[in-house]
Amino acid sequence: MQTFLNALFTGGSRGAIYALVALGLVLVWRGAGLINFAQMGQAMFSAYVASTLIAQGYNYWIAFFVALIVGAALGAAIDILVIRPLKKKSGTAILGSPSMRDAIPVIASLGILGILQSVAGMIWAGSERGFPAPVSTVALKVGGNTMPFTYFDLFTIGIVILILIATSLFLARTSVGLAMRASALNSEVARLSGIRTRSIRTLGWVISGAVASVAGLLVTPATNISPNSLDLILIIGFTACVIGGLDSLLGSVIGGFLLGFVIAFISVYDIPEDIFIAIFLILMGIMFFRPQGLFGSEVGRRV
Amino acid sequence: MLQINNLSVSYDSVQAVNQISFTAQKGRITTVIGANGAGKTTLLRTISGLIAPKSGTISWSGREIQGMRPENIVRAGIAQAPEGHSVIAELTVEENIRMGALFRLRTNRADVRAAISESYELFPRLEERKSQKAGTLSGGERQMLAISRALVSRPELLLLDEPSLGLAPLIVEQIIDTVSILCREKGLTVLLVEQNANTALAIADHGVLLALGKVVADMPAAQLRADESLRAAYLGY
Ligand SMILES: Nc1ncnc2c1ncn2[C@@H]1O[C@H](COP(=O)(O)OP(=O)(O)OP(=O)(O)O)[C@@H](O)[C@H]1O
Ligand SMILES: [Mg+2]
């Protein structure tokens, strides 16, 4: 029973992180129509910045907010310096075919991931490092009983839920949120309505970068950070998006939690190596039986 | 005043609009009629900035606007209700309307609210359905919504692309009447694209007949309406 509860809560806090990664991916997907493979590169970079600040004695929360800004700024830079110029060039002969036009920004994002990883390797000499969690990572005790979760699990789940609520309120209730939804759903009608879809798309990259950075900060105390330590999380987050339906925020979040549980139970009851097989099987299963995802709209799929 | 001057637009190999020129007078309804593929939609999309012209100029109130971004053209006072009753199906009716006024929220919040209630007065059916998803509306209601969305930006020039498409005569009449009232009472300039020449020429002041991307007639609407031979040659009836 204890093992079961342990797996359940570990799954919940890992799932929360995957949900964040998936949320970041969906935000860019809905605006720009591409899977941003550089996302966890941005997160890794900002986690390194945070670890440097914390090592120099800065407060955790200062490091946290600096990391958010770094992740957001990297998002804006990728969109403005790489994706926008690529889109502009896509009318030329070589880039003329629609499939190439869609593939090239994705390949570019992989390239950016590589660049971020090697730059981080140069700056921080590729050393693994981490920082302590802001709250205790030992199991909570209530009245002498050891609970199946730690303070840090609660902290993680709390922050993630806060971000999810804030993001959905922003999208549903504010006028900028309406502009973002409109641009994602039909950019032509949005532009005819006077919405500056280009800036709105960049805003999507900014929010996505900040959200991904939080994910990076939340995994670091458990795993330490190295230039490619977040690659696996990106794959899991991507799978979560596919499960949920790439254009559904709620779906991708649920997908994230679902994968968190699956992975936690496999590592507890089975051997951790089977995680990859499980992820692969889930991905294939969804592709075969429900390619639009659990919550995605059938027409909304862009690839 | 909208002045189109020697405008040419082409898609890869197709020359859709070929050296056309005409003028739409302020406060009047100008209609552009023509058969399928005549280049009417291409013309409106070019005015709205969705397509860049190959050559020629579009001047609006004395300012050349060709090549400007669509979002800035809206800010210059030109709004379009596009072909096929384009609304965003996943958003609610109210959200679709508000969308057209988002860019004015910061400068003129009170007027945005006024503009939205005016569009509900114009089309009460929209108010009854304001929290419904736009995708659940009928064709006629969608057209009303597309026009409302364009109107809340407080345009001086309204571009309408085949508002009658697929609608019952009664609804067409209601929509057309609304547009002509806006024009007469508020001085709105209207550029109305139609295949349904009779309806359009009946309310328009001026008519432009387009065929294969060229202007073949440019005259007062009543005169164009009376010209049997032109209509027989280019519209087939
Ligand atoms: N995106 C496009 N790519 C290539 N050719 C196009 C494109 N859009 C329109 N055309 C061509 O340009 C010409 C004019 O099309 P347009 O849509 O402007 O006509 P229209 O007068 O609006 O017709 P309809 O009354 O059927 O709406 C047609 O020959 C059409 O095939
Ligand atoms: Mg057309």
TrEMBL record, chain A:
Pfam families: BPD_transp_2. GO terms for cellular component: plasma membrane. It is found in: Cell membrane. GO terms for molecular function: transmembrane transporter activity. The chain crosses the membrane at residues 16-38, 58-82, 103-125, 149-172, 200-219, 250-269, 275-295. The keyword Membrane applies. GO terms for biological process: amino acid transport. The keyword Cell membrane applies. It is a multi-pass membrane protein. Keywords: Amino-acid transport, Cell membrane, Membrane, Transmembrane, Transmembrane helix, Transport. Belongs to the binding-protein-dependent transport system permease family. LivHM subfamily. PANTHER family: ABC TRANSPORTER PERMEASE PROTEIN (PTHR11795:SF451), BRANCHED-CHAIN AMINO ACID TRANSPORT SYSTEM PERMEASE PROTEIN LIVH (PTHR11795). This is Unannotated protein. It comes from freshwater metagenome.
From TrEMBL, chain B:
Keywords: Amino-acid transport, ATP-binding, Nucleotide-binding, Transport. PROSITE patterns: ABC_TRANSPORTER_1, ABC_TRANSPORTER_2. Pfam families: ABC_tran. SUPFAM superfamilies: P-loop containing nucleoside triphosphate hydrolases. The keyword Transport applies. CDD domains: ABC_TM1139_LivF_branched (cd03224). One of its GO terms (molecular function) is branched-chain amino acid transmembrane transporter activity. Residues 2-237 form the ABC transporter domain. GO terms for biological process: L-amino acid transport. The keyword Transport applies. Belongs to the ABC transporter superfamily. This is Unannotated protein. It comes from freshwater metagenome.
